[in-house]
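Hello,

Following up on my earlier ticket. Below are the two sequence lines again, exactly as submitted.
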Amino acid sequence: MTADLMLIWPELILTIGGLITLMLGTFFGDRNVGLYQLSSLLTLAAAAAAVVALFGIETTVFSGTLSVDSFGGFAKLLIYAASFVCIIVAPRFFNGGMRAEYPTLILFAALGMGIMASSRDLMTLYVGLELNSLAAYVLASFMRTDERSTEAGLKYFVLGALASGMLLYGISLLYGFTGTTDFAGIAKVLGGELNIGLIFGIVFVLAGLGFKISAVPFHMWTPDVYEGAPTPVTTFFATAPKVAAMALMTRVVIDAMGPAVGAWQQIIIFLSLASIILGAVGAIGQKNIKRLLAYSSINNVGFMLVGLAAGTQQGVEGVLTYLLVYMLTTLGAFLVVLQLRDADGNQVESIPALAGLSQRRPGLAAAMAVFLFSLAGIPPLFGFWPKYLVFEAAVNANLVPLAVAGIVASVIGAFYYIAIIKTMYFDDKSDTEFPKGGGAIVEDAVITASALWLSVIGYLFIPVLAVLSASAAAVLF
Amino acid sequence: MSGFPILSLMLAVPAIAAIACLFVGDKMSRWVALGATLVTFVLGCIMWAQFDIGGAQWQFTERADLFGRFQYALGIDGMALMLIMLSVFLMPLCILASWDAIKSRVGLYMAMFLVMETIMIGVFCAQDLLLFYIFFEAGLIPMYFIIGIWGGANRIYAAFKFFLYTLLGSVLMLIAIIAMIHEAGTTDIPTLLNYDFPVQMQTWLWLAFFASLAVKMPMWPVHTWLPDAHVQAPTAGSMILAGVLLKLGAYGFLRFMMPMFPDASGQLMWIVFGLSMIAVVYTSLVALVQSDMKKLIAYSSVAHMAIVTAGLFAFNQQGIEGALIIMLSHGVVSAALFFCVGVIYDRLHTREIDRYGGLAVNMPAYALFFMLFTMASIGLPGTSGFVGEFLSLAGIYEASSWVAFVCTTGIILGAAYMLYLYRRVVFGELTKDDVKAMADLNPREWTIMVPLAAVALWMGVYPESFLAPMRGDVTTVVARLAPAKPAGDAHLAAGKPKAAKPHGETAHGSSHAGGVQ
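Thanks for your patience. The regenerated structure is below:
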């Protein structure tokens, strides 16, 4: 027991740190932003350090319900990094309305996501997922007086509950027909003959998880929630939970359902192509930058699923690399959105208002252009590389039609990305002014660093990324 | 051939200058861009001088294992050398051509051109398939900005069409590249050139590459992006688009499709011939009825490129050498023609042919240069166009007399539309007042015209300077294609050599047929 506890330091740190942050807020008041922000950031840094310290250990704890491995470690580092940034950018956005619940909820969400990424059992999976979701519902409606924010929270909650229901139903079917909730045990049974109950179980579990990664046709909530939630929260939703849910989905598909390739592969292929195409088509005509980025995330999840559909180690490596690059790009893009304020200091979310941004804020527009071209996967920007990896995995796994369909659909996606660039660069200046300043140095630094990394510099890191993702992916095979 | 990384330097100079241009302000950025492109041009000349004709196939090779899965591998053969020379030669002229015409956001404009130069050099010298693809597709981004920001009235439509059309083509090539890497287990281009892919697979790979390169070329019927892009692009944008970017397609044919998939090339050559024949006649006829000068030249580019594709797929020394010379010649001549249009567009701000007339009276120097480039485009002996067209048509004839017949019609039509254009713009009565007021070439325009004219004549009078570095590479490709080559219908038979011929005739014959093995 104690030995097991020694291996879940990241989770322990997050739990304790979250409680401390909550107490700090309660005792010293919401005004002391610096205090609880610092404690939450320190918590995340400590948890990340613990993950790094545990790197290389491959084992399971608590009777095999939770794994400690580099796959989970990789995902956790991404999750903690995204949470870190989302806490830093918050105070400026809430502009005095910041409360201690915000960092606390993010910490608890990060805890839940860490458990998702390392679960090896349907029960821990569900606990992690719900811990994350409950925190996320509250975060979505964090601006209590804002109508859109409360609407987003409610919508997220109702649809999320529905998805949880489906997931639970699938879990109960899998448990009923296999007699175990352990991933390895389920895999053993799935290696034999499949009956209709098992197939239903697989379908429902994948549908429930599909909701979390917002794959089409379970994506309906995404644009509304992204638009309504406060921008730092949207930034959080678009990054950390995507990493966690994708990691979880990968683990479930490869670890628990691995032998039943025929059963899950078609579903993943369908989710993938539907997400790529609908994510691209749906984005055309969006006038709100946050809604557009929501569709972009749906679109990108589709590409990640191409790698997962391959079901090979190479495919999983592709998915992990994709997650990392996607997370950096999305963080950068949302940080740019956070900087877009008009002369009165109000957030600007309308795309037509961005017209001529390149003349008012050349640096910001250039960074955004880098992020968008990267999301579209146009070389030489680094967003090309993960796309290449997932398509390579698909081709090598003899899924050439999937690769061809996916890559042709990516051209549709390119259309709306370059349409925003057109607005920023080709159109005449809009009436909206974007005065400089007010942004934290950290924000600028993160934007600059990720933009530089996503331009050609990222390619120099391919060997490092390859080693990291390979060691993480190898755990599942 | 020393260890000096000249290719990396040529990539780095414009790239660094591009970053500098963003920060130094509008006035200064022009000089930075001009300086950087001139330095690159000088480096190119040094490279040409150092190039060992008849030496190793790949020279100036550099290799660094920077990217793990693929390599930073550079190196050039004769074909790449000539195309790099074309790019670095045109670049300073493009910068000069936009000296006064571009007034807004000059720094960004210059940066985009310099990035474009890096990308073009990179495409031609990449020795790694993935590195090639990255450069190949990266070219979309600067061109998108150049057309979209500094283009004409309908620039946004043109920029989107250009971007999406060419992207759709290239993604299919990416799938083919992945399949090739999977099959051959390497990304190294020289190795892949000698790898024998299974015949069945070759067909698919060939079609995927064709989808991409035909759009870049552009071949009929996927050429429709080109007239739009040209018409809307600023003058220098058109120059670089016609001068170098169109050559990427043909370069891809010659570098990848033909030597890597010889069997498929042999089986599917009818597609290329068929499309080329349609393109030559159809686009020439379309060019004949254009009222917009740039559009006319754009269509003529499609027609010229069709002769290039037909020449390449003749699978013999003359055909391929001729195609290469047309590529170089068209690179210079079409850039010059677009510049000629740019010169009068800057004065009158219209490209309508009917708005001009009688320019020979008040712009004699301009009329002279325009005449020279018109003739070079038609293929008058003594100009670069003649050498290329004659050689490639001779090659095509050997492969198929019908294709040669149809392509030759294109030459006649080419003369028709070019002369018709020239007559309407330069000759006739000088009646319009605003046209009367147009001044002749200024020193800057002279500086651009003279080198272009000199090269067009040089290539026409002594093409050997350009052919010699490429001959060995063409021979290699021809040898690689030989097993897959279908029998031609010309049944050429060597005549019995006579004992002694007059001196001039032998010299003439050997300069064209010298490379035939």
